[in-house]
Amino acid sequence: KGFFLKKKMFRGFTRGASFVRSASKSLPSYVKVGAVATVGTGVAVSMIPESQCDGKSFVAGFAGVVVGGVAGWMLQKQETDKVTKSKEGIQAKFETYWPRKIMILFGAPGAGKGTQAPKIVDILDIPQLSTGDMLRAAVTEGTEIGKKAKAVMDAGNLVSDEIVIEIIADRIKDADCKNGFILDGFPRTLEQAKALDAMLAKRGETVSTVMEFNVPDSVLEERVCGRWIHKSSGRSYHVKFAPPKSMKLDEKGQPIPSTMTDDATGEALFQRDDDTATALKKRLQGYHGKTVPILDYYRPRGVVKTVDANQEINTVWSEILHNLSS
Fold first, then answer.
1. Is residue 299 annotated as part of the catalytic site, yes or no?
2. Which of 11, 40, 134, 258 lies 20 to 30 Å from 302 when distance is taken between CA atoms?
3. Active site residue 227
4. Residue 210 CB coordination number (10 Å)
5. For 144-181, what is each residue's pLDDT tens digit?
6. Is 283 a catalytic residue?
7. Do the strands 227-229 and 236-238 form a parallel or antiparallel pair, or are they unpaired?
8. For residues 31 and 24, is the Cβ–Cβ distance under 8 A?
9. Catalytic residue among 188, 235, 290, 305
């Protein structure tokens, strides 16, 4: 009798499966299998002669429903888990840092953008775009806008804001900019900021974050003017934070140039032209005079985030993370 019940139930389950498969292809797995179990059980029970329809028949049928439903739920869960795990990393980032980032980094020379920007790129998985790099790439690749830029440069003229905006517009169409991008070194003037906004508006987009690295000018002078470089290796030293072993100071506490040599080779170190106090003063005047007004332009939108970059590196990074997710 037990064999008879199992056989009838199996035949019913098979017929039920055929019915559900043709009628409900779009249903989730757990619904399909549960329906198969139910239909199959009904067919199986209906095929049992009345004389044999005792309690065991219905127990067997009920067991079929339960087993089918549980099996279907497990199958559906496995499918869902696969999809979830494959998207988990990306989704976690954009659940935290949404909306999509179109970010501009601002900071005077020595403010620490170069140290922190790669970390931002890594955590958001969006590229950092330099107008100089984009311009060179467009010229090298021979794009239409690249040819236009090359003709201007070959004539000894500066590339116009209009051309730079076109280069940016082309670059941000690339796949790596799908989730956003970071502009570093642009815009430098209020006119460029307005031109950038106009270009983005045509795409239905806008700048979402303007991050300012704020450091007092006196600290910037100490950071920038203390740098010395080994030309062939690129090794960098600093008179306060990482001095070469050979360094000696004069009576005013300033390094004696002849004593500034590379630890590894003993070769002379040098200072970049831009790393002198005179050059820095001019650069800071340009930054405060032209770049800072851009912050005032974006500030009313609530997108300007100021970071106190006159802190220990890890503390600065913690503040950046807070600003990214706020």
1. no
2. 134
3. yes
4. 22
5. 999 999 999 999 999 999 999 999 999 999 999 999 99
6. yes
7. antiparallel
8. yes
9. 188
